[in-house]
Amino acid sequence: MRRHPAALAAALVTVALGALLTPKATAAPAPRVLHVAPHGSGDTCGAARPCSPTAARDAARDIADRDVRIELADGTYELTRPLELGEADSGRAGRTVTWTAAPGADPVLSGGREIEGWRRNRDGTWTATAPEGVAPRQLFVDGRRAQRARGAACPAATCDATKDGMTGAIASGAAAWQRPTGAEAVIKVRWRDYHCRVTGVEGDNLTFAQPCWANSASGTDRTGPAWDSTTVDSARYHGVAYFENARELLDEPGEFVWDTVDRTVTYLPRAGENPRRARMVTPVTERLMVIDGAHDVRVDGIDFAYAAYRQPGTDEGYAGTQAGLTLTGASGPVDHAGRYYTKPSAALTVRGGRQVTVTRAEFTHLAGAGVILEAGTKDSSVTRSRFMDLSSGAAYIGDTEPDPEPALAGERNTLAYNTIRRTGVEYTDSVGIWAGYEAELSVDHNTLEELPYSGISVGWGWNQPEARESVLRDNRVTANRITDVMRVEHDQHDGGAIYTQGAQPRTLVAGNYINRSAYGNTERDGNGIYLDEQSSHIRVEGNVLTRLGYKWVSNWADYGIQNHATGNWTDTDAPALTGTGSTMKDNRTELDRLPAEALAVAGRAGARPEPVEQLRPDLARAGTASQSSTDGAAGAAYAVDGDTSTDTRTLAEPGAWWQVDLGAARRVRQVEVWNGAAMTTADFDVQLSRTADFADATTRHVEGKALRPTLLEFAGGDTARFVRIRLTGTGRVGLAHVLVHP
């Protein structure tokens, strides 16, 4: 279409006038960069004259027109008090204040103090005097954790605990120790861990610091639900796991003792260590960074190391309740829902934060926890960070109040793509990630490995009346890789790789890979996904779960309702979900090989791609099982049904046996023997034979009880058609599972 020249001219004038009247878009100003160094000084904070972290914080408060980057140079920042950031240290008008590593730098905020002046003793130990104000509870030798000197276990028959104290001072050796009041008793009861200091020895009796011992015993009306039976004076107490920190117990390389009277640390070096040449560090400063009421703050690429956790070294001790929380104080409100339990100290604490981002951080060699987000922290995240060698758990998110004021409710927080390994080193009841009463929480693509108890715990309150209605809702635990948790040597029970409590409408547990939870256990215990107590309205979908000590999904309580498990893959089975309206549908169970789809799901889980441990083919699955006798309905076939929650059982008789006929001679490389629910099978032979009379049998003897499982390797690959488990004495054979691998 042709336009009239006059109209064209008018249009050009309009465009030109519009261009003159429209303001030009301006680029946002470049961030202001403040430079920090370990020994920085002054308030210039320039590249040539860097300042200290606190000076940079104060200088940033005067910058309101742009983003601020506070860049930390390489090196260790030895803190005697936390770096505290408050509301005044927030980003303003949509801008962000970023605390970050300078390009190529690896800055470390450290609460450690080096112990020097070591002198060698005649017995091969080394001793140094601790600086004033330093009470070493942990010691790290060139970054490697030393262990407080510990003794052997003391069974309940000897170390009999009551609400007032304990017997066993003579048999345990405590009565003969030069300074028994520097020692502690470490006690594990089911899912709880207790550490209380000895305060006196009189004859065969021991007394302990208060309120630690009272808070570890029954009768306070504050130790948990009314049914609780996991205190030190309960029927479930089975003795002291070990006493620690007495000079007489120092007998293994890598152990140390702290003497509070002489103020000395004594260490027995490992091979090749020389304390005069090594860097001997103990945590002293309790918190390294505290962000309180700040918003739009980013912490990027900064490491946290050697933060202290002082409470266990006081008369409060460590009266563990669940998941690394403790009961403190000599008195308090009557409470059965854990509302007043105390979280551990953490290297980085965020209180009431908004849009606080922690990324690419490293938390190592800590005496307590890594990160806490609490007191109404919202829209905040911890991502792509690493947690390793922590005395307590990695991350604690939220609080224990079921119905907080809106400003104190935790909402829309995220933990994603983090790696958590070897946490709970000292306080073995702690978990990798704990979340209390949170809403819209995302725990996604994290890797958790080598943990003493549960991996991820979301929810609180058991089934107590004050906790039945809460702010819990819309949480997501997705695509996490959780392997080698609930490790048997730590003697913590009744947990799971993923553990939940409380009614959580629209909560999803999906796409997680769980392998080896309570594997090799000493009892039928340890779950994959544990919907405990009042867990309700939770969907468990598309998870891959293998090599579990007990159930792949557990929902035992009838007051947990409307839980649904669908489309999961697992090598065992579990009883139907108990709660009202709960369902299990389209799950692929009793597998002896993971299909390609399951391998793909497992391979996508975690902070980074890693190999998936494929299941091994089971020759016994297609075999014919028999046993020497049958007690009731506990037939021999239950051991080859692919389900570790069903059991065989013979009568008690001399040489009782169970066996499977593989149908043809096969080369056998490994046999897995899973003890039954009652853990009755003990002192037995595993025999492989080509013939039914076992005349040519290869025999391996197992002393003591079978585990879940006990593994027997036949490295040469013995040829056998028959596999038999036979008692060498009199008793029963009870088995949950027997697998025969080619």
From TrEMBL:
Domain of life: Bacteria
Signal peptide stretch: 1-27
Classification via SUPFAM superfamilies: Galactose-binding domain-like, Pectin lyase-like
InterPro entries per UniProt: Beta_helix (IPR039448), Galactose-bd-like_sf (IPR008979), PbH1 (IPR006626), Pectin_lyas_fold (IPR012334), Pectin_lyase_fold/virulence (IPR011050)
Domain Right handed beta helix, first and last residues per copy: 348-544
Keyword match Plastid: no
Keyword terms of this UniProt record: Signal
The protein, known as: Right handed beta helix domain-containing protein
Species whose genome carries this gene: Streptomyces formicae
Classification of source organism: Bacteria, Bacillati, Actinomycetota, Actinomycetes, Kitasatosporales
